[in-house]
Predict the structure.
Amino acid sequence: MTINKTLNENKLTVGIGGRLDTVTAPELEKELNDSLEGITDLVLDISELDYISSAGLRVLLSAQKTMNKQGSMTVTGANEAIMEIFDVTGFVDLLNIQ
Amino acid sequence: MKKRLTLTAKALLSLTLMAAFIIVFTCLGISFSFYLDMKEDYRRTAFSYTRTAADFINGDTIKKYYETGEKDDYYYTILDFLCSARKESNLKYYYVFIPFENDVVYIWDADNTENACDLGYHEPYLENGKKTAEGAFKKDPKEELTINRDAVYGFIASACSPVFDSSGEPVALVAVDMAMEGWIESLVMFISLEILNVLLVIIVSMVVLYFIMRRSVIRPIEVINAAAKDMVSALDSEEKTSIEIHTRDELEELAGSFNQMNDELRDYLIRLAAVTAEKERIGAELNVATQIQAAMLPSVFPPFPDRKEFDIYATMTPAKEVGGDFYDFFLIDDDHLAMLIADVSGKGVPAALFMVIAKTIIKNHAQLGEISPAKILMSANEQLCEGNQAELFVTVWLAVIELSTGKGKAANAGHEHPALCRRDGKFELIEYRHSPAVATMDGIRFKEHDFELYPGDKLFVYTDGVAEATDAHDCLYGTERMIDALNKDPAAGPAEMLSAVKASVDEFVGDAPQFDDLTMLGMVYYGPAK
C-alpha cells in the first residue's frame, strides 16, 4: 500500500494505492489519526487502490465519522471493482463518493 | 571442515622454512666475505714475496745474464736466496723472468729439481699471463692477484713485481705462484662449521619461538575453540561459563568478546523462554476462545430433526484462532425460521469479541418475537453503535421465513449477494441494493424485501472469505467459480453443497495461506409439513 498526503491549509488530500486489507489498514488508520487535527476538508483519492477489505472499509468509516464532526470528507476515483464493494456493503449511503 | 594442517604443524613448518632461508643466505654471505678475505690474504703474502725479491735483486745485472747466459757468484747467491725462501714458505714456484712480446725468458727459477727452467729458457705465456705481466711491468705497477686453474700447474694464485735497474726502469719481473688447494679445503671446512653453528642457533631459537607461540597463540586459540564447541550445551547448565586468557593482545580481546557473547546469548535465551511461555499461554487461551466461539455457533446437524420442512447446514473456518465471521439459525416461533450470516470488519480477537456481542444482540431481538429482519437489524444497530470505540462494523444477511408457506423477508446490511437455486434450475446470485453494514452509523433504516421459496428450492449464503479467497498469484476466487461448484451436483443437499464449495476453494488457493474467515450456510426448503 502507498499513502501520499498533500496538505493545503485546511484541506488534506490523501492518495491511497495498492491493497487496503487487514495488514495495511492499521497503517492508514494511524496516518489519518495523526493528521486529521484541524482539517475541515478531507479528500481520499483512491484511484490507485486495487482492493479494499472490510478492515479497510472500517478505516474509511472511522475517518468519515471524525470528519462529520469537523468538516467534510470526499472519496474520489473509485474503480469499478471498489465501487461494487461500496455498493454491496452499503457504503455508498455512508460515504460521499464522487 | 577437514583440517589439513593443525596450527602447530603450520607454525613448525613456517619456522623450518624460515630457518632454511636464513641458513642459505647467511652461508652465501659469509662464504663470499670469507672468499674476499682469503683472496686479500693471498695477495698480500704473494706480493710481499715478489717485492722482497725485486728489491733484493740488483736490476743492472739482469741484462748481462740475459745477453751472455753466464752465471757468476752473484747469480748463485740470488738463486740460493730464492730457493731457501721458496722452501721456507712452501711456495709452488718462485722465479724471475723478462716478459717479451710473444714469450718470457727465465733468469732465475727457484727449483732444485730437473724440471727447473734454466737461465735463458723461453716459455710461452700461460692464459692471462701476458696481461698480468704487462700490468706489472711498469714503474708504478698495480698489485693484482691472478688466480688460474691450469692442467699442468694446478689451481694457483700468481703475483708479479718488477725489478728496476739503477735508472729506475723495469727490467724483469719476480713472480710467485702459490698453490690454492688448501684454500678450498679451508673454505669447505669453514662453511660446514658455519652451517653447523647457524643450525644450532636456529634450532634453539625455533624451539624457544615454538614454545612462545604455543603459549601465546596456539593454546589460547584451542581454549576458545573448545569453549565455542561446548557453548550451546553449556548454555543449558545453571553455571555461567567463561574463558580466561591473559595474553594482553587481540586474543584476550577475542576471549572477552566471546564471554560477552556468551552472556548476552544466555540473557537472550532467558528472555526468549519468558516470551515463549507467554506465547504458549496466549496460545492456550486462544485455543479455549476458539472452542467457546465454535460452541456459540449451532454445530449439531441436523439441528431440528423433527422438522421436515427444511434441511440446513453451516460451517465456519476462521483464518486465525478466532474469527469475526458467524452464522446462526433458530426458530423464532413454531412457524418462523431465522437464518443469518455475518462478517465483522477485521479479524482475530477484536473481531471475535465484536462478533460475540453482535450475534447475541441480533438473536435476542429476534427471539423477542420480532419477525421483520429490518427491524431486528435496526434495534441491533442502535445497540451496537453505543460505545463502539473501535468503530468495528458487521455486514449481515438476515432472513426470516414462514415455514408453512415458504414466504419470507430478507435484509442485507452490506453483505454478499445470496445464491438461490429454484427447483430443477441452477444457482444464481440474487443481486439487489444493500443497506449499509450494521454499526456503521446511528439510525440506519434497513431495507427489507419479500421473497418466496418453493419446495425443492435451495439457498446458499457465504462471507467474503469465499469470494475473496486468494491463490499464490493474488487472483481472487470470485463468485463465478463458487456458482460453478454449487451447480456441479444438482441433487446435493446442504452439507454436500458446502463441501463442494470448500473443496473448490481449497483447490483454487493451493498452498497460499488462508487470509479471511471462510463461512457458509446452505438450506433446502422441502415445503410445508404434510
About this structure: The first strand of chain B starts at residue 93 and ends at 99. Chain B touches chain A through 25 residues (CB under 8 Å). The mean pLDDT of chain B is 87.
